[in-house]
């Protein structure tokens, strides 16, 4: 099966190429680049010299649909909302790594993303691609809105407890941290070495575009409106996301009981690993892999649950989850092409 990528020179694209290159049932099709059409891929990424030499091309929906079986869009928000309708009209399946098709409400999209929303008739065709939770819908989807990196780590960490009657849903605080590759390859002052190195910054306080996305999933899965406190931080490392989430419990449970609840919740999900009581996951322990590792602790003095969830933002947070969704859409083992062990140290 041939997989095309749009947004060729970005980090999401080069990570998709790494994963497609070793996938048992997919091979790389057309790479579309807005800025580098005509140039070979290895000119932008010399570490792939002699491996990915193909020339990147301009976007052409009918040509892409003729030559490929699926298209991954790894473009900034505000771009795929214009491209995906043309692709769907040509009958090709799409997986969008951007935020353009994640929020069902067009008003919310405009409010948080500050772009014009996608056309509602196409928005309605999108399935939110949190692989572990929407598995069955994903299998028959034609358009996947791949979740954001922070929402993946946050919601996988929160869902087992909010879906029980144990959590005080008004008390949720997510303290989130990301490596700099989460901001993409584009140059900006905030990702400048001298601004990042030996520094720790909170950003987009109360204004992060992932707030409505996380709340939408929590509402869909609990049937109640849940408002969260969510703060993002930029950490001087390349890859990795850690979400430290605090939830007040309405009943007394022990750490061991929380671990048992989470283990049962994810027992059929190979990419979610629940840590034993007393072991705390770190970002390096999932580096380069599609795992989301979750550590839990209940403080008996406050009866508050602390959830530590970690992912590699470019794998489970983007390209890896996109491949996992393509696997589900095609009826393959969801682990196909995603069996790399974490890279350690
Ligand atoms: N980085 C991460 O960890 C994650 C990213 N995402 C989302 O995935 C998407 C891709 O992210 P990422 O690869 O990191 O971003 P990058 O900034 O690294 O790459 C995006 C690429 O899109 C293309 N592009 C840029 N502007 C335009 C435009 N106006 N029209 C068409 N193409 C354009 C460019 O490639 P070219 O010129 O070659 O076409 C660019 O390199 C984004 O929406 C991001 O929010 C989601 C989860 C995690
Ligand atoms: C470190 C960093 O800057 N991360 C980005 C995450 C980008 C992302 O995944 O956002 P989308 O919803 O547009 O896909 C951010 O916080 O905005």
* Total number of domains: 2
Helical run tally: 12
Structural class: alpha/beta
What is the CATH T-level topology of the largest domain?
Dihydrodipicolinate Reductase, domain 2
**CATH architecture name of the largest domain:** 2-Layer Sandwich
CATH class designation of the largest domain: Alpha Beta
Report strand order across the widest sheet. 8-9-7-10-13-12-11
Portion of residues within helices: 25-40%
Give the tally of β-strands.
13
Unreliable stretches covering 5 or more consecutive residues = none
Order of secondary-structure elements:
EHEHHEHEHHEHEHEHEHEEHEEEH
What's the overall average pLDDT, rounded?
Answer: 97
Shape: globular
Main beta-sheet strand count, sense and barrel state: 7 strands, mixed
Strand content: 15-25%
What is the radius of gyration computed over CA atoms, rounded to a whole number of angstroms?
20 Å
Seen as an oligomer or otherwise, the chain set is single chain
Name of the CATH superfamily of the largest domain = Dihydrodipicolinate Reductase, domain 2
Question: Which small-molecule species are bound to the chains here?
Answer: NADPH dihydro-nicotinamide-adenine-dinucleotide phosphate, N-acetyl-L-glutamyl 5-phosphate
Instruction: State the distance separating the first and last CA atoms.
Output: 34 Å
Please write out the topology:
Elements: E1 2-6, H1 11-21, E2 27-32, H2 41-44, H3 61-67, E3 70-73, H4 80-89, E4 93-96, H5 106-113, H6 120-123, E5 126-128, H7 135-139, E6 143-145, H8 149-162, E7 173-178, H9 193-196, E8 201-203, H10 210-222, E9 229-234, E10 241-248, H11 255-265, E11 272-274, E12 292-299, E13 304-311, H12 315-329
Parallel strand pairs: 1-2, 1-3, 3-4, 4-6, 5-6, 7-9, 11-12
Antiparallel strand pairs: 7-10, 8-9, 10-13, 12-13
Helix pairs in contact: 1-12, 8-10
Bound molecules: NADPH dihydro-nicotinamide-adenine-dinucleotide phosphate (NDP) and N-acetyl-L-glutamyl 5-phosphate.
């Amino acid at each position: 099966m041939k997989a095309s990528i749009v947004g060729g020179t970005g980090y999401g694209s080069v990570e998709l190429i790494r994963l497609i290159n070793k996938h048992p049932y997919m091979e790389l099709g057309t790479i579309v680049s807005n800025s580098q059409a005509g140039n070979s891929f290895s000119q932008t990424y010399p570490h792939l010299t002699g491996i990915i030499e193909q020339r990147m091309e301009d976007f052409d929906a009918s040509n892409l649909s003729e030559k490929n079986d699926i298209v991954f869009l790894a473009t900034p928000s505000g771009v795929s909302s214009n491209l995906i309708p043309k692709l769907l009209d040509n009958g090709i399946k799409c997986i969008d790594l951007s935020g353009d098709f994640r929020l069902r409400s067009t008003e919310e999209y405009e409010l948080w993303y500050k772009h014009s929303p996608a056309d509602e008739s196409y928005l309605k065709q999108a399935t939110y691609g949190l692989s572990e939770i929407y598995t069955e819908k994903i299998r028959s989807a034609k358009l996947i809105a791949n979740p954001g990196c922070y929402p993946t780590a946050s919601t996988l960490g929160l869902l087992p407890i909010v879906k029980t009657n144990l959590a005080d849903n008004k008390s949720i605080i997510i303290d989130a941290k990301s490596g700099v590759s989460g901001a993409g390859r584009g140059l900006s002052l905030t990702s400048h070495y001298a601004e990042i190195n030996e520094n720790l910054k909170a950003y987009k306080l109360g204004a992060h575009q992932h707030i409505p996305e996380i709340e939408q999933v929590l509402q869909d899965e609990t049937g109640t409106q849940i408002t969260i406190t969510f703060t993002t931080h930029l950490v001087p490392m390349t890859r990795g996301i850690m979400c430290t989430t605090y939830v007040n419990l309405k009943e007394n449970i022990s750490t061991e009981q929380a671990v048992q609840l989470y283990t049962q919740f994810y027992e059929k999900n190979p990419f979610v690993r629940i840590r034993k009581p007393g072991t705390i996951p770190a970002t390096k322990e999932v580096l380069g892999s599609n795992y989301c590792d979750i550590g839990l602790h209940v403080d008996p003095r406050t009866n508050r649950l602390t959830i530590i969830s970690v992912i590699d933002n470019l794998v489970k947070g983007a390209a890896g989850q996109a491949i996992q969704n393509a696997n589900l859409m095609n009826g393959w083992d969801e682990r196909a092409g995603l069996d790399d062990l974490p890279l350690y140290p």
